[in-house]
Amino acid sequence: MKKHILPLLIITILFACKKDDINNNSNTAMLHFSTDTITFDTVFASIGSITKTLTVYNKNNFELKTNIELKGISSAHFRMNVDGISANSVQNVEISANDSIFIFLEVTIDPSLNTTPYILADSLIFTTGTNKQDVDLIAWGQDAYFHTANSYGPIIYGNDTTLFPYHQLDCSEAWKNDKPHVIYGYAVVGPEQTLIINEGANVYLHKNSGILVGNPFTEQSGGSIKVNGTLGNEVTFQGDRLDSWYKDLPGQWDRIWLMPGSINNEFNYVIIKNGNIGIHADSVGNNNPTVTINNTIIKNMSSIGILGQGAKISATNTVLSRCGQYTLACNIGGTYNFKHCTFANYWDYNQRSTPSILLNNYYEGADGNIYIRDLNEANFTNCIIDGSLSTEVSFQEQEIGEFNYTFDHCLIKLDPTIDTSNEHYFINTIINQSPKFVDAYGNDFHLNETSPAIDAGIGTSIIDIEGNPRNTPDLGAYEFQ
Fold it and tell me: Please, are residues 257 and 213 in contact by the beta-carbon 8 Å criterion?
């Protein structure tokens, strides 16, 4: 399995050793290892690591010969010694029946690397007969706060059951910004707890990792997260691969999931990027807000930017862009208010068939019946809704339920057959005109000087997402300067 340099935190459980039995004659034998992942924690630049030992077992009743190769882009930084032989590749290593050998491993970080923290990831490849097995090598080049899964629990969501690797967080202290935070598996905020993340913190999540606010493995509900970024000192959530190829690659981690009953969550000056779903907010069943989002950018999600499931969500000065499905899904009812937000879906990784925004007031049960969930409010004020499709809003209404929405002083891209003359739903709204972003496909959603969104807003909002004052407000998150 070919590895790439992982420029940011990787987790300690990687799949390995799931191999066919190998035998030089029958291909039914298998090597066993003392571990499937060797991790070097906090290796400082230009200083060699301590020596780690891997034990390789032949638990068969016959002798095996195996070829061992240190393989990967960063293999020059790892060093191995196989029973006294120092090399990156050693051939025909004999392991007697029911015996073992030792492999000694070290690593040195190259200080010329431009990524911080430094992360290296390679593999030891064992070829025995026709079978290949591997052991992963992970080196962290900077100290970090590691939140590593140490438990497993099932989440039953509708008809689906998912086994989650997770770690119950200690929320007694706020997450600091002096070192990165690395999450492997799912970090869980328990009921009656609040995770506070200080300004400037960088949170890196491994593949299939995320944050669950509210412990889904107990009968209790609740729990909150408060992310306290500031202008110029934002909090960032992103994948743990920082080499240039991964810079804007969606789907590198899972989501921030506000579980049913989680209330009073806050995201202020936050950047959430390169995951599957940015914020997944479930129903609260009371009048408390699920989440308030201010001055936040959510982008490059393989699925959805914000997914509300009967939730109560408010957002101001927020940008949602480049999502494989919806930038915003107001699903199975709820209460939603968005002011000075930019929804701009110029997804270009593959074909997108879903519009930027979904409004919905029902769901279909496993029994095939339709169940109503009222859309109490979906209010958009001073917003821009645009993208690469011919229409960027989907209205999925069951008429026997509440389906309340308004677009007040907005610029939106709609199916031209939709009747927009009803002033209850469309108030001083610009329909099917280009917002004239500076560079839509380059993710620059500032307005150029000819944009119809300039001075088209209502009311007074003190500042935009960049701290610029609003006098006669423009539409969207950015005030024209």
Answer: yes
Say if CB 259 and CB 282 are below 8 A apart: yes
Same domain? 369 vs 274: yes
The Cα–Cα gap between 321 and 300 comes to 7
Instruction: Look up the pTM and report it.
Output: 0.74
Q: In terms of domains, do 220 and 110 share one?
A: no
Q: What is the C-alpha separation between 326 and 307, in angstroms, rounded?
A: 8
Residue found under tokens 């270009």: 348
265 with 135, same domain: the answer is no
CA dihedral of 231, 233, 234, 238, whole degrees rounded to 10: 150
Per-residue pLDDT tens over the stretch 340-395:
999 999 999 899 999 999 999 999 998 999 999 999 999 999 999 999 999 999 99
In a shared domain, residues 348 and 314: yes
The Cβ of residue 79 has, within 10 Å, a number of other Cβ atoms equal to: 18
Total domains present in the chain: 2
Write the single-letter amino acid at 303. S
Rg (CA), the chain: 26
Alpha-carbon distances, residue 370 vs 160, 285, 366, 397, 399 (angstroms) = 19, 20, 10, 11, 12
| Domain stops at, among 140, 174, 196 | 140
